[in-house]
Amino acid sequence: MKATGVVRKIDDLGRIVIPKEIRRTLRVREGEPLEIFTDRDGQIILKKYSPMGEMGTFARQYAEALAQSSGYTVCISDKDTIIAASGKGRKELQDKAISPELEQFMQQRQVLLAAKGERSYIPITTETPLYESEVIMPIVSEGDAIGSVVMLGQEPMQESDKTLVMTAAGFLGRQMED
């Protein structure tokens, strides 16, 4: 745990203000849910809540099945992190923060089929190598974009690959609603 040097008092309603600099650094926005944890030492830990995080094992299994059937690298993300990756290069993607471009794209709620070099191509994370082609579809649950399904490959992708990713994202979104 890292000390920030910031001290805040709790107000009469039990509230505490998280400084703007910390919210910006951790990408916590107004209205976003936070999970509250406590430990034996009396520490209170706030963590960004990710409904997709609850599906971690299921998402990994789904990514593995999709990667095996398609032959491509498959990633499933929440709004901040790759929570499941399977296929070639999965170790370079697993648990990495998603790129600001992917985060912004998810809000558009559209499917993307792009090749490297095209204007619409989006890097998945800020530190992973670029793939030759990609298909991205946001996972929408109860009207909110909560994550994405990403398929990455070294050869051009087809409309059938786009359909696979759309189906996966739709299925995961419905699972979150149940």
Please give the structural blueprint.
Elements: H1 20-26, E1 34-38, E2 44-48, H2 56-70, E3 73-77, E4 82-86, H3 90-93, H4 100-106, E5 112-115, E6 133-141, E7 144-153, H5 159-177
Overview of the structural elements:
It is elongated and about 60 Å long. It has 178 residues and is α+β, with helices and mostly antiparallel strands. The protein has two domains: 20-50, Ribbon (Pemi-like Protein 1, Chain: D), CATH 2.10.260.10; 52-177, 2-Layer Sandwich (Beta-Lactamase), CATH 3.30.450.40. Helix content is 29%, strand content 24%. 29% of the residues are buried. It has a five-stranded antiparallel sheet with strand order 4-3-7-6-5. A two-stranded antiparallel ribbon has the order 1-2.
Which CATH C-level class of the largest domain is it? Alpha Beta
Number of helices: 5
Which spans have pLDDT < 50 for at least 5 consecutive residues? none
Question: What does the average pLDDT come to?
Answer: 89
Question: What is the alpha-carbon Rg in Å?
Answer: 18 Å
Annotated CATH architecture of the largest domain: 2-Layer Sandwich
Main sheet strand line-up: 4-3-7-6-5
How many β-strand stretches? 7
Give the total of domains: 2
- The topology string of helices and strands comes to HEEHEEHHEEEH
Main beta sheet strand tally, sense and closure: 5 strands, antiparallel
Strand content: 15-25%
